[in-house]
Amino acid sequence: MENLIVGKAYVLGDNIDTDQIIPAEHLVYSTSDPEELKKYGHFALSSVPIDKAGLPEGGKLFISGDNYQSEYNIIIGGSNFGCGSSREHAPLALQVAGVKVVIAESYARIFYRNAVDGGFLIPYEGTEKLNDKIKTGDKIEVDLIDNKIKNLNSGKEYQLRPLGSVYDIVNSGGIFNYARQNKMI
Amino acid sequence: MGMTISENILASHCGKTTVSPGEFIEANVDIALGNDITAPLAIKEFEKMNFGKVWDNEKIVLVPDHFTPNKDIKSAIQSKILRDFAKKYNIKNYFEVGRVGIEHVLLPEQGLVLPGDLVIGADSHTCTYGALGAFATGVGSTDLAAAFITGKAWFKVPESIKFIYFGKLNKWVSGKDLILYTIGKIGVDGATYKAMEFTGETIRNLSMDNRFTMANMAIEAGGKAGMFEPDEKTIAYVQNRAKRGYKIYKSDDDAVYADEIEIDVSKIEPQVALPHLPENSVNVREVGEIKIDQAVIGSCTNGRIEDLRIAAQILKGKKVHNEVRALLFPGTQEVYKQALKEGLIDIFIEAGVAVSTPTCGPCLGGHMGILAPGEKAISTTNRNFVGRMGHPESEVYLASPAVAAASAVAGKIIHPDEIN
């Protein structure tokens, strides 16, 4: 994983639950079949109400047309991001859609654990609320070493909470690879 | 310094005499659970590791309950992954359709989870087993795969919040109303990373089925676990089900809590959680005129025999409103059989209720009762998120079996008193 992630932000509100991230009706696709796997990306965030999709204006679809990858690779969320189900398909769907980092005010416990242990994406916590300061489509630079993000549109910088060993686990590709690399198994 | 029941259980499972909140531990689990949605991913990870054998073929529990009996070809393929894995590794506790039930009703009923256990399940409502005085929490598929191999999982020891319920319950007020009220009070992230501990005189008088309902929804406040200290009711529940020994853990008198919240239950009326969060709970009389298209009674939250008895008590001799589809999902085959024996199923069918085999089906918008755009459902399930039961423009109102049954008859959300 690169230490500097640059991309476009997709901004969401509070309590983005796993049913909004990947609705249960889609939890039937095989993750072993590369074509079926793409469906998870295609339906990522498909149940977010349209007026809350891509804040502040809303009405911006995360995935357009038949694509399975999004033009946005950094998600800025509010509090309690990923609440609800334990489905690991939630961080998986975001990863397939091309998301590298989620930056939220806070996370639901299981989503956070899944994002890290499965090595799907980096779940950063902000030191302040950011989903009212960054707009969907803003160009963002995330520095994984210094734990900060810069809004390249406004030039403003924000500090993030340090990742601790989370960075190493996600960087290894999840707990199995991490355990193997560190000769724990 | 004393420890809570959660800390006592976690300490005993990692070989320590004490643990404190915030500490990271690696602990031995007693049961590792997966279902037809989450276990296939775990099995894929497990097979990638080429380990060749599982940690313990009696402690892995596989329950195909979400999209079963399979709703389509793709879900049939996912279930087959479970079935083939169970056969290959001789998993003793694999439950085939016909014997299966909704996992969190099934495992306690079968005596697979016992007081003092440490349980992980790749299902967020695994916290249900806290009703038995077990520390049980939801994890993802990767953590489940790791447990398939090692029998271990890492935990951050959570802080605990103590809820003290006192006073006498009003008529029709159940465990469901207490937990909806509690989530309304602290919010959907009010207990994130924390164990909720349910105590007080009201809880001591509460039946096991009602305790399961409350523990089940701890996750809807972000809770890592929803704990009850075992008492004589717990022992009565497990004594004829347990096939192995178990240990009772309690909270020490000087245990330390992050917060203590007292709740006078005599002030609580039947609750309804309005769309689209479980924290939107209000007194049923404050809901206003909400016509419903569907009423769902059942699930891992309210699919136990007492839930069915209350629904039947209300529906007896009455008819479901002609513009309402009422659906009943007994939690397990045992619950179904008991309901048959007591004549409850007759009452439901006479009233015009569709009685289903046990499945998670409609709760998560899987199958067996999906909502069209604009439709509204009253449901005894646990989540009313956007699109939870179908189209993103449909709405779910959460309530107890009593309120759901009464509303099914009235065609709109009402207090059970208004119909009986």
Summarize the structure.
The complex is a heterodimer of chains A (185) and B (420). Chain A has 185 residues and is α/β, with parallel strands linked by helices. Chain A has six helices and seven strands, in the order βααβαβαββββαα.
How would you describe this protein?
Chain A contains six helices and seven strands, in the order E-H-H-E-H-E-H-E-E-E-E-H-H. With 185 residues, chain A is an alpha/beta fold. In chain A, helix 5 crosses helix 6. Chain A is globular. Chain B has 420 residues and is α/β, with parallel strands linked by helices. Chain B is 30% helix and 19% strand. Chain B has a five-stranded parallel beta sheet. In chain B, helix 3 links the parallel strand 3 and strand 4. The mean pLDDT of chain B is 97. The interface between A and B is large, with 38 and 46 residues.
Question: How many helical stretches of chain A?
Answer: 6
CATH class of the largest domain in chain B: Alpha Beta
Number of strands of chain B: 18
Q: Indicate the CATH architecture of chain A.
A: Alpha-Beta Barrel
The average pLDDT value of chain A, as a whole number, equals 96
Query: How many DSSP E strands of chain A?
Result: 7
**Order of neighbouring strands in the sheet with most strands of chain A:** 4-3-2-1-5-6-7
Helix content of chain A: 10-25%
CATH superfamily descriptor of chain A: Aconitase, domain 4
What number of structural domains do the residues of chain B give?
A: 2
Biggest β-sheet strands, sense, barrel of chain A:
7 strands, mixed
The total count of helices of chain B amounts to 14
- Write down the CATH class of chain A: Alpha Beta
**Straight-line distance between termini of chain B:** 52 Å
Keywords:
heterodimer, A: 185 residues, alpha/beta, Aconitase, domain 4, 7-stranded mixed beta sheet, 24% helix, 17% strand, B: 420 residues, Aconitase, domain 3, 2 domains, 5-stranded parallel beta sheet, 30% helix, 19% strand, globular
